[in-house]
Amino acid sequence: MINFDSIFLAKKSHGLNAYASNIDCFTYAEGYFNIAEDACNKIISDRLIGELDIQIFPILYSLRHGIELALKFHLNNLRKCNVNISNKEIYGHNIKKLWDCLKNKTPLDPRFTEKITYLNSTIMRIAELDPDAQIFRYPETTNNQKWPDNKTINFPILKSIIVELSSNLKCFMNESECFIKERKTGTYTNELTRYQLSELANSLPSIESWKNDKNDCFCNIKAEFINKYGISNRAFSGAVDLIKTHREFAGRIGIESNVTIFSSEIIIDIINAHKKNNQPTNSNNGLVNKSEIDLDIKFSSYNYYKTIKDNITIADVIKMETIFYMALKNIYSEFFDNCLQNKTKQNKTKQNERN
């Protein structure tokens, strides 16, 4: 008698244990893509001619099911970001329906639009060959449809398509996950994502130059951006207003951030210590021009430490550590205050434990 439950015994497996837990749609899709690619590789590398006709449909079905899962993964992510997608639109096996919904509901963000354009013809062709996930699974569908006779499939070409298609869809799913994290920052408008706002902030000239009515640079960038994303003048103005008040993006157009690690006194000490043998620092009322902060490699870390050691506080160190780990882990700048608060709490906890 076959004891199926014996598969759940970890002993005598020589380490070959799969940890089948609750995994997301991304991982499911990745598994189906990988199994299709692995099967193709095995048949081609070992020239398993006798397996060609036997494994072709399981391979095609695995590819198709991976596509279906990838599309549903992204649509579910859009719903988590409050994009209006109904249960009826997201369920079922009709790839064309899912793909059309994805194209209509996905923001016009280059990270998505370029991939959608690139994948469109291939996904539509697979949807045409197997509209409702029956042709690749059964010899005959519920509507008495069959796979057409004498349809030759080139395995090496199929393998290359599987590799390219699955690679692009995995990238698409990665971007979809990033999109959710990005939305949590709250930095977006009705028309533009955070990614697009960042793109705009990078392309705009310094805000000081905007005062010039003849600023062709600003006007040209505005026209190009409006044309690129099909937004209105009002939407563009709203995006610019958001950039002006955004801690990170504002700095790109010349508006200083309110995150200060050191006091202005310490900064002046650092610059003066660095330039004591050079020309004097241009300062007005104790304020230093940003252009004067030019610390080269001659200003050693030891000299830097000597300058600040008597003035730096624990709060300064915690702030530097927070910024360092946020950069290391690619955490969005919008979460700085929360990260700083957590670091401060951790430090107090450690101090209490020492005491």
What descriptive keywords fit this protein?
355 residues, mainly alpha, 1% strand, extended, two-stranded antiparallel sheet, 14 helices
Structure description:
- About 5% of the residues have low confidence.
- The radius of gyration is 29 Å and the shape is extended.
- It contains 14 helices and 2 strands; from the N terminus they run H-H-H-H-H-H-H-H-H-H-H-E-E-H-H-H.
- The protein is mostly helical and about 350 residues long.
- Helix 2 packs parallel to helix 6 and helix 5 packs across helix 6.
- A hairpin with a 2-residue loop joins strand 1 and strand 2.
- The protein has 4 domains: about 170 residues; about 60 residues, no CATH class; about 40 residues, no CATH class; about 45 residues, no CATH class.
- A two-stranded antiparallel sheet has the order 1-2.
DSSP helix count? Answer: 14
- In the sheet with the most strands, the strands line up as 1-2
Query: What's the total count of β strands?
Result: 2
How large is the share of residues in beta strands? under 5%
Helicity, as a percent range: 55-70%
Low-confidence parts:
277-288
The averaged pLDDT comes out at 85
Number of domains: 4
> What is the structural class?
mainly alpha
Distance between the amino and carboxyl termini: 64 Å
Order of helices and strands: HHHHHHHHHHHEEHHH
Biggest beta sheet summary: 2 strands, antiparallel
Give the overall form.
Answer: extended
Overall radius of gyration: 29 Å
